[in-house]
Amino acid sequence: MGRTESKSAPMHFKTMIQADVPQGRNGKHKLIVSTILRDLDQLKEGAALKVPLAELAESKEKVRSALNRATRKSGRHVATATDANFLYIWNVSQEAE
Predict the structure, then answer these.
(1) How many helices (H) and strands (E) does the chain have?
(2) φ and ψ of 47, to 5 deg
(3) What's the predicted TM-score (pTM) here?
(4) What pLDDT digit, counting tens, does each position of 40-80 carry?
(5) DSSP symbols for the chain
(6) Rounded Cα distance, 64 and 79, in Å
């Protein structure tokens, strides 16, 4: 019986040590979402944040989506609304749901 050696195809991508792989993900919305969440922590009941749409680097839909992901992940409840110029964000109390 002869010895069979399997020839493997060459790899297409470079490799690295797994310990050197970055573990966190800083998405492009991290700064605005983090800022909104910090402001929501200080927001008085019955008040809303008023974020100018012109100051957003991304569309209001993308920011709302990123905010929704962050609040769901942390178990927070917020509501949003928009008009032609602003994105409004406020905390929703558990009993109001």
Answers:
(1) 2, 3
(2) -110, 160
(3) 0.70
(4) 999 999 999 999 999 898 899 999 999 999 999 999 999 99
(5) -PPP-PPPPPPSS----GGGS------TTHHHHHHHHHHHHHPPTT--EEEEGGG-SS-HHHHHHHHHHHHHHHT--EEEEE-SSEEEEEE--GGG-
(6) 10
35 contact partners, CB below 8 Å, separation of at least 6:
none
Backbone angles phi, psi at 86, to 5 degrees: -135, 155
Identify the residue whose tokens are 């970055």. 22
Calculate the dihedral angle through the C-alpha atoms of 42, 23, 73, 54, rounding to the nearest 10 degrees. Answer: 60
CA distance 63 to 57: 9
